[in-house]
Design goal:
By secondary structure, the chain is an alpha+beta fold. The protein folds into 2 domains: about 120 residues, Beta Barrel (OB fold (Dihydrolipoamide Acetyltransferase, E2P)), CATH 2.40.50; about 45 residues, no CATH class. Helix content is about 20%, strand content about 35%. The chain is built from 3 helices and 8 strands. The strands form 2 sheets. It has a 5-stranded mixed β-barrel with strand order 2-3-4-6-5. Strands 7-8 form a two-stranded antiparallel ribbon. β2 and β3 form a beta hairpin. The longest helix has 21 residues. The protein is elongated.
Length: about 170
């Protein structure tokens, strides 16, 4: 299923290898999955109409929603669809690495990798601590040693590798 809006004039963004941050608007996304792999094409543009292309194994999602559901209560497909996925005309403050400058059907496009929603450093540290604690609680609830994450053999409540009680 492809969804799109009007076409914009475009130029290349940044230099190859550069890490950039800017607000981007989603204007096209398409699922190009087959039997072997899942793949999504996302086209976004900046305020000047420059096109940024990102290929991903999943649909582009908002960072805060992923953080909330990562280790607490496995979400249903419906919850994921309702809460996190971007729709056409959504704007995100994106951070990405420029991979290449390309041309497609006469349009200049910037191919990017590692696209994610940008967050301030302090907020990232807090979210990392939250994820770490959520992961620890998840492991304990599933009887997995949080020290070695279940890689060692368990004898009762003592992990053979870390010899720590949990």
């Amino acid at each position: 299923m492809a969804t799109t809006t009007k076409q914009l004039s475009s130029d290349h963004v940044g230099c190859v290898g550069e890490v950039m941050r800017m607000p981007l608007t989603l204007f096209f996304k398409m699922d190009v999955s087959n039997d072997e792999y899942d793949r999504w094409l996302h086209k976004l543009h900046d305020e000047w109409g420059n096109i940024v292309v990102w290929w991903g194994a999943k649909e582009l999602c908002r960072a805060d929603y992923i953080t909330e559901i990562r280790f607490v209560n496995k979400p249903t497909v419906q919850q994921i669809n309702q809460g996190c996925k971007l729709v056409i005309r959504d704007i995100i403050d994106a951070e990405f690495h420029v991979k290449a400058h390309t041309f497609y059907e006469g349009e200049k496009q910037t191919l990017v990798v590692r696209l994610r929603e940008w967050r301030p450093e302090e907020e990232r540290k807090v979210l990392k601590q939250l994820r770490t604690e959520q992961e620890r609680q998840y492991l304990i609830a599933n009887h997995i040693c949080p020290e070695c994450k279940g890689r060692g053999r368990r004898r009762g409540k003592v992990c053979k590798d870390c010899e720590g009680g949990w």
